[in-house]
């Protein structure tokens, strides 16, 4: 196990720069999730960490050793690929023991290592099978087993769950997290799915267009997103954004679209009349008499909660209620955002304005 | 309106029994048969019939212009005691074995090379195909000149380099002649092997090599443990075809040496042609051709087992 330092790393393909100076400190034993929409450079960064891509500038160190010019096999990392990359002509046992075999380990060492990893992942009955004879989830576990056998300093996961069906994905998510809790190996995990990021990470790194938008624990990112991008990316259903102006004379409030008045706990200094974006998460709406009037468009009950799509000042917003209201499309309701949980962003830069 | 209602119903025609002809017209299996018929006719007429006729003629004493009568295995008995026939068998096996082995080695090497990223990749791949697209007889003629006893460019070059002071008798010396025809066959056969193996190489997922890189495999280990095992099914196909083509080769030899010198390059196919068409002994020539069948069957059997799905290829592929 060891820490990983990514310092001002840049990557260009020809003249096209895809990573514009990314710095991420990763502590020993930490589970870090790189999350972002496709094309944000998260997979490229992971491949640079693995040594499959060159580093254009900046440094990556594993432990206290800069690995920019270290061969992949010398880096002591193990990677789980999106399509698992299992060797189709080798049995599960051979797949898992391949790295030990190349290292010149004895047959007993290989057997021992494979057996131990197989026990951790409940793969023992499958050791003599070929990858084709396995289900998606089993292949996924073999790919993880191959990584565990090597007992590496760092685990790298490249969207490992995206080839699985929804139910299996949830199960494997828990399994990976449990595995990390047991082994405590530093892990870097790439995904585009913010739910995966939220549920698994010790630290989430939100990336967008080759830069880091924000870094922090899942709840930090959820509670105080640094900008509008992170606010919209983290959380499901996504945060509602309403454009308008800050009113700070007298008690603070926000004038939303078509003059809708929305509550604000406090206004930032010198912000009277400043155009801004008002962000409120769907779960932070309540029904209250002093709320803003909205007209229901669609009601989607999921059982545990109900998602309500409504027009608020002409803009569509979504609200989530855990209690069961009797709503019908066309009904007028009064939606009130919890003023202490409201986010305010600069209209042009998207930066967070309130504390 | 009303009179329509009162019109007597016309009796429905009775349902008649389906005749065999009806079945033949509508049954899907019969329909499939009709579609197959042209291809089947073609194969029977141009493949099965000539093959059967050839085997039949080998049991007769037919000569050109004389139908011949059945003489049992007399032709084969003659061949059994014919040292030239056995020489041609030896030549064919030598030619097939050496040429196929070298074609495989060079073809695999070229395929691996062309699979790498390099400048002008598409052009180089096209260039490799050139020996394959030149008509065989044309390339044979070119080799004939290259290996000419008087005007060979190789002799000329070596002389000008001061390495030799006489012309090499390429096609007049038995060892040289064998080497030359094998060389020409290799030159001609390498593109097929190389391009087919290249196609096979491209089906290997790049992520397997990445995984192997992280597992610590060197270039050689990647070839030995990943590329080669994954390529074996396609190698089996390519080498079967290569062996069959080489074993039955005729054009190249006939254009370059006509089996000479002193029968050193006579293959079974050329000897058969010489005996049957040039000398007119159709029965004997047919017997030589028919004698190739067991060898070819053996080659096909080898590939049959080689081509069987390996254990790792079984099961569903749901990635």
Topology:
The complex is a heterodimer of chains A (355) and B (319).
Chain A: E1 4-13, E2 16-26, E3 31-35, H1 42-50, E4 57-62, E5 65-66, E6 77-80, H2 92-102, H3 107-120, H4 136-149, E7 154-158, H5 166-183, E8 186-191, H6 194-200, E9 203-208, E10 211-216, H7 218-223, H8 228-233, E11 240-247, E12 253-255, E13 261-263, E14 275-280, E15 285-301, E16 306-312, E17 315-321, E18 332-337, E19 343-346
Chain B: H1 2-6, H2 20-26, H3 28-57, H4 74-80, H5 83-115, H6 121-128, H7 130-133, H8 136-146, H9 153-160, H10 174-201, H11 206-215, H12 219-247, H13 251-256, H14 268-278, H15 282-307
Give a description of the structure.
The complex is a heterodimer of chains A (355) and B (319). Chain A has 355 residues and is an alpha+beta fold. Chain A contains 8 helices and 19 strands. In chain A, helix 2 (92-102) packs across helix 3 (107-120) and helix 2 (92-102) runs parallel beside helix 4. The model of chain A has no long low-confidence stretch (mean pLDDT 90). In chain B, 70% of the residues lie in helices and 0% in strands. The mean pLDDT of chain B is 86. At the A-B interface, strand 6, helix 2 and helix 4 of A face helix 11 and helix 12 of B.
In short:
The complex is a heterodimer of chains A (355) and B (319). With 355 residues, chain A is an alpha+beta fold.
- The DSSP helix count of chain A reads 8
Q: Indicate the low-confidence ranges of chain B by residue numbers.
A: none
Instruction: Characterize the largest beta sheet of chain A: strand count, sense, and whether it forms a barrel.
Output: 6 strands, mixed
Number of helix segments of chain B? 15
Helix content of chain A: 10-25%
Number of DSSP strand runs of chain A: 19
Helix coverage percent of residues of chain B?
A: 55-70%
Instruction: Report how far the terminal alpha carbons of chain A are from each other.
Output: 37 Å
Question: Low-confidence stretches of chain A at least 5 residues in length (pLDDT < 50)?
Answer: none
> How much of the polypeptide of chain A forms β-strand, as a percent range?
25-35%
Distance between the termini of chain B: 67 Å
Question: Numbering strands along the chain, what is their spatial order in the largest sheet of chain A?
Answer: 6-7-8-3-9-10
User: Radius of gyration of chain A in whole Å, from Cα?
Assistant: 24 Å
Oligomer: heterodimer
Element pattern of chain B in H and E:
HHHHHHHHHHHHHHH
Main beta sheet of chain B: strand number and arrangement?
none
């Amino acid at each position: 196990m060891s820490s990983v330092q990514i310092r001002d790393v840049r990557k260009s393909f020809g003249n096209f720069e895809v990573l514009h100076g990314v710095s991420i400190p990763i502590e020993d034993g930490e589970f870090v999730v790189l999350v972002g929409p496709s094309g944000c450079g998260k997979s490229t960064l992971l491949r640079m960490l693995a040594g499959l891509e060159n580093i254009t500038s900046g440094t990556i160190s594993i432990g206290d050793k800069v690995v920019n010019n270290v061969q992949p096999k010398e880096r002591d990392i193990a990677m789980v690929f999106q399509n698992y990359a299992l060797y189709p002509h080798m049995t599960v046992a051979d797949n898992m023991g391949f790295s030990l075999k190349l290292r010149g380990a004895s047959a007993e060492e290989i057997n021992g290592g494979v057996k131990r990893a197989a026990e951790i992942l409940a793969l023992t009955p499958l050791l003599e099978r070929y990858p084709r004879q396995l289900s998606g989830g089993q292949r996924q576990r073999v790919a993880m087993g191959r990584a565990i056998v090597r007992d590496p300093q760092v685990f790298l996961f490249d969207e490992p769950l995206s080839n699985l069906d929804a139910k299996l994905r949830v199960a494997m998510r828990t399994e990976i997290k449990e595995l990390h809790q047991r082994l405590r190996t530093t892990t870097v995990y790439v995904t585009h799915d913010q739910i995966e990021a939220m549920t698994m990470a010790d630290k989430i790194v939100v990336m967008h267009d080759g830069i880091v938008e924000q870094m922090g624990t899942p709840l930090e990112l959820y509670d105080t997103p640094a900008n509008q991008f992170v606010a919209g990316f983290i959380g499901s259903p996504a945060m509602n954004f309403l454009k308008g102006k800050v009113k700070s004379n007298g008690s603070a409030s926000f004038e939303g679209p078509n003059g809708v008045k929305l509550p604000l706990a406090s206004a930032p200094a010198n912000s009277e009349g400043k155009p801004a974006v008002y962000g409120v998460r769907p779960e932070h709406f309540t029904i209250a008499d002093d709320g803003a009037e909205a007209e229901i468009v669609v009601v989607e009950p999921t059982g545990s909660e109900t998602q309500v799509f409504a027009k608020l000042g002409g803009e569509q917003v979504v609200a989530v209620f855990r209690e069961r209201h009797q709503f019908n499309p066309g009904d007028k309701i009064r939606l009130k955002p919890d003023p202490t949980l409201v986010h305010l962003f600069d209209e042009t830069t998207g930066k967070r304005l309130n504390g | 309106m009303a009179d329509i209602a009162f019109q007597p119903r016309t009796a429905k025609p009775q349902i008649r029994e389906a005749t065999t002809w009806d079945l033949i017209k509508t049954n899907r299996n019969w329909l499939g048969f009709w579609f197959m018929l042209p291809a089947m006719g073609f194969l029977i007429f141009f493949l099965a019939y000539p093959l059967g006729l050839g085997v039949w003629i080998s049991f007769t004493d037919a000569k050109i212009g004389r139908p011949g009568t059945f003489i049992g295995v007399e032709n084969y008995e003659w061949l059994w005691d014919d040292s030239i026939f056995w020489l041609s068998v030896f030549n064919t096996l030598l030619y097939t074995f050496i040429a196929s082995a070298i074609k495989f080695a060079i073809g695999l090497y070229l395929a691996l090379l062309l699979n790498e990223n390099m400048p002008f990749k598409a052009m180089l791949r096209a260039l490799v195909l050139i020996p394959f697209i030149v008509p065989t007889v044309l390339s044979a003629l070119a080799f004939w000149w290259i290996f000419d006893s008087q005007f060979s460019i190789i002799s000329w070059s070596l002389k000008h380099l001061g390495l030799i002071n006489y012309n090499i008798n390429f096609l007049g010396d038995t060892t040289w002649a064998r080497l030359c025809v094998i060389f020409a066959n290799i030159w001609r056969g390498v593109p097929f092997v190389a391009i087919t193996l290249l196609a096979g190489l491209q089906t290997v997922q790049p992520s397997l090599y990445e995984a192997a890189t992280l597992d610590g495999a060197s270039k050689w280990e990647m070839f030995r443990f990943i590329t080669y095992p994954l390529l074996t099914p396609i190698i089996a196909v390519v080498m079967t075809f290569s062996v069959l083509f080489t074993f039955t080769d005729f054009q190249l030899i006939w254009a370059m040496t006509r089996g000479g010198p002193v029968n050193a390059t006579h293959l079974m196919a050329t000897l058969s042609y010489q005996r049957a068409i040039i000398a007119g002994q159709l029965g004997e020539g047919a017997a030589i051709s028919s004698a190739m069948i067991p060898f070819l069957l053996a080659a096909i059997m080898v590939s049959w087992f080689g081509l069987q799905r390996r254990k790792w290829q079984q099961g569903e592929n749901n990635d």
